[in-house]
Amino acid sequence: GLFVTDYFTRTPRKLSPFRSFASIELFHFHIPEDTVIAVWNLITFKEQGGTFGDQCPDRSITVYFRSGAPSVINPLHTHFPRDTAVPGSFALTLTWTLPNRTTGVFNVTSPLPGDWFLAAHLPKDEGKISVKGLYEECQYLFQPQLIVQRLVNIAVLYPGHVTEQSMAPHNRSCLYKVFVPSYTSRVLVEVLRCRGAEGCPLWLRVRAKAPPLHNSTTLDCREHTPCQLAQDLPFWQHWYYVLVEKHPGVPGTISFQVTVQLTDCSRPSLARPPFLPSSASMNMPHSFGSAGGLALGDSPPPTSPNDTKHPLPIPVTLHTEERCWPVRPTLRNELDTFSVHFYIFFGPNVSVPPDRPAVFVINLLPVLDSGGVLNLELRLNVSSLCGENVTVFGCLNHGVPLTSGDNTSVTCETESLAGFLLSVNATASLSRLRIPYPQTGSWYLSLRSLCATEHGFEPCTNVTAEVYLRAYLSPCINDCGIYGQCKLLRTNNYLYAACECKAGWNGWGCTDNAEAFSYGFQLLSTLLLCLSNVMFVPPVAIAVRSHYLLEAAVYIFTMFFSTFYHACDQPGIVVFCIMEYDVLQFCDFLGSLMSVWVTVIAMARLQPIVKQASVLYLLGAMLLSMALQMDRHGLWNLLGPSLFALGIMAVAWTARTIRRRHCYPPTWKRWAFYLCPGALIAAAAVLLYAFVETEENYFYIHSIWHLLIAGSVGFLLPPRAKPSRRLGPLPRRKGCGYQLCVNEQEELGLVDPAVASINSICTS
């Protein structure tokens, strides 16, 4: 056969520790039809500060694979909401083989065509809150690459048409495909006139959507005559692949014939015509390929299958219970992204007759609808039962309607298909089903009413049950409840939604309360964060008493907005917002930085040196507003203004020291009881904020941060500067003037210069 190799790659992305599905990295691939093997090359490498992160710790990386829709993962083993179906997926854990790089390979033989999704994440961390830019963070980058190998010109089998084939000695198998249209109840493949070896040493394998595997439906033609393999309830509007494989060790050329019969369940007395030249009449795609046979290359000898199935005779007519009943369509009404309602014509109340099922179809658009949640709700109208013990069973299945042919029991699965079963009766009149990240395509819902007897379920007589049916697509399950937020996420051109839980709640719908915060704990944490800002009251009083009115206004601004920002920032239900969250956050950050700025500028005592020192206050406010608008969580937003203000203060103090020829402030009491304690308290607050704060201890560590910062301001704020009073020059015999005494008092750094005696200073 002729193989074509395709190569796909994605841009490397930074992985994050897992907290919810909103923290994973999702990659979208598309596998073409007729693919025989898909190989994912998973590349992971470390970076730190723009270079290779050889010193970064090794953290395992988990990768999930799923066809048709994103994986529904649960690495924290939390509880899913009630009535939620969890589809399966493949998982792979990558370990590190080199200090800064590792690779992994994931092979899929004969993968299903269409959309494939990869999800990757790091393990859950301890939740440390780090200051952005404080140190070079270790980054783990993940890049998947896909290599597919597909066959071209696969022979197409037409229903009722016999295809001749000769298998040369060097060939091991021949591959065909046949398209199955809608309303097909059975596919029967038969191998005829096998010649060239004794007993027809061939295996016949059939699989839907992709070439067969070793565990596909298999029949050994040596043990069954005629060699017929049937597939009941095949997938509609899909390709079925037929593989005829030779037994190992068989010499010579083997010739045989292959034919396919499709049974049309919409016309029970008729079978499909033997040959339809027009593809449109069978709803078949135009990309058929060639009509000849295709011999595949050598392959490893297959093992004897354990699930070899006996041939099923193809019926000329169908029994009544094998008929496919008319499928009622639904009307699609798009309200918003992942907000779609499916309305039933002449609904939403549906009548389920006793003698036949009611079948409905829900069409989900490719790619667009797989990122939400498919919701289904059945509600039985008990008054319509007329006192009978009626149970209405619903079977939701993908690709083909699934109705049970046995009236005594109702199941929602066969040997090759499995669906989701719902049931309502007079006792339990409501049933719900939620499918997160559903596969796209056609979903069929079959409703059937049966009466419960002492011998099991039997068909009802003259009782038509009425059921309220509601089907819709939503972004998240119950909008993530009160302890979660439904987020709309995007990866390249693919949209999907996921819940981000808070207040210790977990799970796919934020319904797992195993680690949830109690109401008392939420109230305590809110009060701690809010009432700790009351510590700014003493600095405000000191500033007002010392005539620092501008500084006092800034402290009041900070205290007010910090209190209400933390009241609005709580993760639980104890939340109170007086403004928009973004406004409160900006004002809180601006007030904190302005408090540092005005305090350090006040310590510099610039008024006697710079006549218009208020310019620095205004300049600082404008620069800090600009910096916060650029990046509110950056390290230099705090360090930049602080260092600049400290530099101004250092220059002013150095100028005074040189001019006065003694250290400024000149008194040891000012250093010992005010400056050193205030600096130590501020340093302790910064250390707690930068290195100790985590998500678990945030409530009390950040409250301590409030107390320490406000306390340091009370210590560092300089004493009141008494205004100068120039009364003219005094006689020189007195040795010093009134103005000289005032300046001397100011430089002593006393809290209240009026306490000391001016005469004593002049005399000394």
Automatic annotation (TrEMBL):
Record's keyword terms, sorted: Cell membrane, Membrane, Transmembrane, Transmembrane helix
One GO location term (cellular component): plasma membrane
Domain EGF-like: 499-510
Residue intervals passing through the bilayer: 516-536, 548-567, 573-597, 609-628, 634-655, 671-692, 698-717
Designated gene of the protein: Tmem8b
Localization annotation: Cell membrane
One Pfam family here: DUF3522
Name of the protein this chain belongs to: TMM8B protein
Topology term for the membrane: Multi-pass membrane protein
Keyword Isomerase assigned: no
Family to which this protein belongs: Belongs to the TMEM8 family.
Entries under InterPro entries matching the protein: EGF, NGX6/PGAP6/MYMK
